Amino acid sequence: MSDKTESENFDAEQVAGNGLLDRRVFLRQGGGLLGALGAAAGLAGYSKPVEAETLVVPSWTTTPGAWVQGYTQPSKYEGKVVRGPMPSNPYNNVGPGSVRSPLQYLDGMITPNGVHYERSHNGVPDIDPAGHRLLIHGLVKRPLTFTLDALSRYPMTSRISFVECAGNSGGMLAPTAADGTAQSLHGLVSCAEWTGVPLAMLLEEAGVDPKAKWLVAEGADAATMSRSVPLAKALDDALVALYQNGERIRPANGYPMRLLLPGWQGNMNVKWLRRIKLLAEPAMTKDETSKYSLLLKEGKVAQFNFPLDAKSVITKPSPGVNMTAPGLYEISGIAWSGNGKIAKVEVSADGGKSWAPAALSEPVMSKAITRFRIPWRWNGGPAVLQSRAIDETGYVQPTREQQIGARGSRFQYHCNLITSWGVAASGEVKHVYA
Amino acid sequence: MSDKTESENFDAEQVAGNGLLDRRVFLRQGGGLLGALGAAAGLAGYSKPVEAETLVVPSWTTTPGAWVQGYTQPSKYEGKVVRGPMPSNPYNNVGPGSVRSPLQYLDGMITPNGVHYERSHNGVPDIDPAGHRLLIHGLVKRPLTFTLDALSRYPMTSRISFVECAGNSGGMLAPTAADGTAQSLHGLVSCAEWTGVPLAMLLEEAGVDPKAKWLVAEGADAATMSRSVPLAKALDDALVALYQNGERIRPANGYPMRLLLPGWQGNMNVKWLRRIKLLAEPAMTKDETSKYSLLLKEGKVAQFNFPLDAKSVITKPSPGVNMTAPGLYEISGIAWSGNGKIAKVEVSADGGKSWAPAALSEPVMSKAITRFRIPWRWNGGPAVLQSRAIDETGYVQPTREQQIGARGSRFQYHCNLITSWGVAASGEVKHVYA
C-alpha cells in the first residue's frame, strides 16, 4: 500500500461478507481506482462497445418535439410509478383509504408530490381555500380565526421532513413473510420540503393559558380526524404547513393547510387543519383510543406513542427491482428517524452475519429521509440483504427477533424491524424472514 | 437589557431603514418576544377574534371526500401556479420555446417538478427509454454505449442543485423598467434534487485519452442542442442525471437523462443526452457561437462563460403579490450562486441606502437555491425593496449601475444585477429602476 496516495488508500475488496464493497468508492470521482474496480468487478459489462450496436438516428431526433406545457407530467413510459395498491372499498369509491409511495422506483431523499403517500379517513375533501378557516381556541386568552391569506403574511419556516403512518410496515408482523414490495410493505412514508408558519407564533398570539398542557388538532375532512398533541411539541418544531416541495400542499396531503409535527406519527400531522383547541388533558378522540395504540405482550396497551423510531429499507434491489447478471451493483435505500439525524446505516449481504457502513447522501437532515448507498459485487449466488439504521441518539434499528421478543406480534403500529430481501440465483428478489 | 436572557437579547426594533426587523425573530419560537413583537408590530391584526365570525361547518366536512388517486395533481384552485408566459410561435405549436417558473407563488428551496422552468430549442422529444442510448466516444480508449437499464446499475449520487438559463433576467437591461413579475423577469431558474451517475465514472470506463481536454455533449432533441464542456468539469461534479425530485426526470427536463453541470449555465446541462464526444478543443457548435456569448463594451465578446454568479430576487412581496394593510410582513426570496454556497443575503427597504441580513433556511447547499427571509414592518408609505446575495467566495451581487458600468447594456446573458421592487402607498408592487 505504500506507493498509493491517501485517497487511493482504501480497500476495493469486500468489507463485509458476500461481496459488500467500501462505500468510499462512491465518494471519489475521476480517480484511477474506479476504473480498476470497474474492470475487476465487471462494471464494464453494463455498457457495450460501439461496434456491438448500429447507431441509428431515432424518430424523435428528426421531428420537432411537443409544445411546452403550463404544468408538466411524468413521461407516459413511467405509468408504473404511481401510488398503490388502490384500496378496496364497498362504498362506491368514497371513504377511507391508504395508498403507498412507490419506493422501489424512486431515488434521492425527496418524494415527488404526485406520489406522496396518503392515508385518509373519509376521502379527500374538496376545500375552497377562500372558505377555509383555522380556529385556535380553548385555554387561550384570545380565541382567533385565521384565513389562508392571513397566514400567508406570517413569517415562515421551511424544513425537509418525512411523514410516516404509524401503521406503516405492520405487515412485517405476519407469521410468514408477505409476498410484498418496498411499496406494499413500507410505502406509507414520504419526505418533502414543507413550508409554513411556526405554530408557536400563532399560539402566542392567541395567548396560552398556563393551565394548557395539550391541544387537540382537528381536520376539516368528513372524518374530522382529531389527535391530541402535547403543548411542548407545538411550541417546539410544529408548523402549520402551507407548501409542499415549493407549491401549495396537494389536496391529498391537506390542502390548504396541515399540521406538521416533524418525526411524529403520521395521523397526528392533521391534514385539512381547521381547529386547534388548547386543553389541560388529552381529548381522547376516537382516532387515538380505538386506533393508534399498541397492543403489547400480556395484553398491555401503549397509548400516545409519538416519535417514530429509526427505520430503513433497501429499495434497490428489492422485490420487482431484480438482479440481472452477476457483477457490481449499487445497493441503495432510505433511512429515517423521528428522533433526529441518521448517524449511520449498515448493510449486510449475508443475512445479518456481517455488516458494512453505507455512504449517506447529503443533506443529512434531522427527521428527514436520508438516502444510503453501498456497492455490492454479486457473485450470482443466493444472498439475504438487510439494512439497519442508527440515529444520532445511538438507537439501533432492531431485528425481527428483537422487536417481537420485546413487544409480541400484535402491536401493529410503530413496527420498525429490519427487512430482509432474499436474492435467488435467478436474480429474483423476494421478501423473506431471516 | 440586563434582565433579559441571551436568547431574548435582540433588537425587535428596526435594524435597517424603513422598517426592516431583526431576522432572529424567525429563529426563535415559543418565546415571549414574538408576542411582544406581534402586538407591537400589528401581527395580531392578521387573525380575527372568534366573535367576529360565524363559524359554519363547510360542505366539505359533511360529505365524504374524493377517492384516492394513483398520481395526484394540485388543487383546482391553484390554476395560476403554472409556467409561463407561453411562447408565441408561428410554427403551429412546435419548435423552440421557454417557460418560466412561477417564483412569486412558490416557497422553500425546491421547485416542484410540474413547474420547473424549460428552455427547449425544438420542442420536447417523445423519447421511448427502451430505444434511447448514450454514446461516449471521441478521444477515448473504448467507445461505449449505455442503455437506461445499464446506467441504472451504476452507483448514483444525489444533489440538490439549481439550473438557470444563461439568458435569465436579460430583461433587466431594458432602458426602462419592464412591467414584469418575478416569474417573467427571473423565472428561468429552478432547483431540484437530481440523482444520477457521476460522469467521471463513465468516462473512466471508456478510458480518457490524455489528449482530451474538452467534450461536446449532444441532445436527442430535434435541435441536437450541443455544448462544449471542459473535461475538468466533467471529472469534478458532473452527473448523468436520471431522477428529478425522486422520480424520473420529466420529458420537459430531459427524460430519460440529462447532463447536470452544477452551477453552470442552463443549456450546458444538455437534456435528452445522447452523445458525449471527447475532444482536444471545444467543438464550436451553433449553440455556443451564434448564441450564449456576451457582447461587452467596445464590441468585445466573452465566450465560454460557464458558472453563474451569485444572484437573488425577492419573491414576496413582488409584482402580483401585493401588500394589503400596513403592519408586519415577511420579505422572502431566493438566492443562488454557481460558485458555491450562499454566505449571506442582505435586504434593503430604502432602495439600497441601508441593508440588513436575512435569515437563511436550512439546508444551505452549494450551487442550490437558498431561501431567505426577513421581517418587515411596513408603515404604509412608499418603499423600494432590494436583495443582494453574497456567496462563499466573497462575491457580492452587483447593482444595476455597477453591472452596466462594467459590461455595457448589450451583454444579454449572465445578467445578475440587483432587482428593485417599488411598493406604492396603495400596496401595489412594481418593478422599478432605483
Q: Say what the CATH topology of the largest domain in chain A is.
A: Immunoglobulin-like
Q: What count of domains describes the coordinates of chain A?
A: 2
The strand line-up of the biggest sheet of chain A is 7-6-15-10-11
Q: Name the average pLDDT of chain A.
A: 90
How many angstroms separate the termini of chain A?
Answer: 38 Å
Helix/strand/pairing category of chain A: mainly beta
Summarize the structure.
Two copies of one chain form a homodimer. The first copy, chain A, has helices at residues 32-41, 59-62, 148-151, 182-186, 199-206, 231-236, 286-289, 400-407, and strands spanning 14-16, 20-21, 48-49, 97-99, 118-120, 134-138, 144-146, 157-164, 189-198, 214-219, 226-230, 239-244, 247-248, 258-260, 273-279, 294-295, 301-302, 311-316, 327-336, 342-348, 356-357, 359-360, 370-378, 383-391, 420-423, 429-432. With 434 residues, chain A is mostly beta strands.
Explain how this protein is built.
Two copies of one chain form a homodimer. Chain A has about 425 residues and is mainly beta. Chain A folds into two domains: about 180 residues, Immunoglobulin-like, CATH 2.60.40; about 150 residues, Oxidoreductase, molybdopterin-binding domain (Sulfite Oxidase, Chain A, domain 2, Alpha-Beta Complex), CATH 3.90.420.10. Helices cover about 10% and strands about 30% of the residues of chain A. Chain A has eight helices and 26 strands. In chain A, β10 and β11 form a beta hairpin. Chain A is globular and about 75 Å long. The two termini of chain A are about 40 Å apart. Chains A and B meet through α1, β3, α2, β4 and β6 of A and α1, β3, α2, β4 and β6 of B. β3 of chain A pairs antiparallel with β7 of chain B.
